[in-house]
Amino acid sequence: MVLALAEPFRVRQDKGAPRKGRAPFLHLGRRMGPAAADAHGPGAGLARLRLIGESFDKPTASQPSDRNPGRTASAMITAFVLTSSVILLTPGPTNTVLAAAGATFGLPRARLLPLAEAAGYALAISFFVAFAALVKDFWWALPALKIVAACWLAYAAVRLWAMSPDMTGAARRGAVARVFLTTLVNPKAMIVGTMMIPQGSPDDTALRIAVFILLSSIAGLGWVALGAALPGGVRRRSYKGAAVVLGGFSLYALSSALA
User: Fold this and answer.
1) Which segments of the chain does DSSP mark as H helices, in order?
2) What is the value of pTM for the model shown?
3) What residues have CB less than 8 Å from 176, skipping those under 6 apart?
4) How far apart are CA 242 and CA 13, in angstroms?
5) Which is deepest, 87, 91, 168, 226, by most CB within 10 Å?
6) Other Cβ atoms within 10 Å of 81 Cβ, number
7) Hey, is 184 helix, strand or coil?
8) 114 against 232, higher pLDDT
9) Residues 6 or more apart from 6 whose CB is under 8 A from it?
């Protein structure tokens, strides 16, 4: 390759070689004609070098790509799992109700309540994903939902405060509905559906929702176990404590909607 590039600059030592002191490329231009001189002159050699240099900057089929779509997708899912875990382990309305139920009923009787949480998250997040795409141009839509959530949390706080420590079977069945409905209006579902799941392919959306539901079931069981592990005196007042916490979340949701 180097010899081929240097060919226009070589001084030919044949019968028609120029005399000493004369520029060889002038002789070549005279022997080969003006067109040939332009095609094989020193400028053409520099152009070849430039083209070769540019060819190294362009990726070819044999060169590996710098961007690996599989690795990027895996990193995004990992980040989603870590963020979701932090959200689910943070105290919130649903976690408060689960811990109170665990403290009141015990782990064996309340162990299925995380399934109600998972069902609530599945429905709520799916709704918020679709809702975010439909009302992205309406500034008042999400604040309005926050006000609805604040009203429900305030209602749930009043109901929890009035509940007796001696729970019956009907009260346990009511706990399932309470966990489900509290999860439906949980601000965490709004955050996940409107901020953490981008508008992409249906398969990617379904995967992220399924991952969050699985994590919520595991975290929910942990909150039930935490409530069941509380001392007896604390457990009998667990619903009143949960009512205070839910009241605080209600005020926070209302203030964030009006801000």
Assistant:
1) 2-6, 24-32, 34-40, 42-57, 69-89, 93-105, 107-110, 113-134, 141-162, 169-184, 187-191, 202-228, 232-236, 238-258
2) 0.65
3) 112, 113, 116
4) 101
5) 87
6) 15
7) helix
8) 114
9) 45
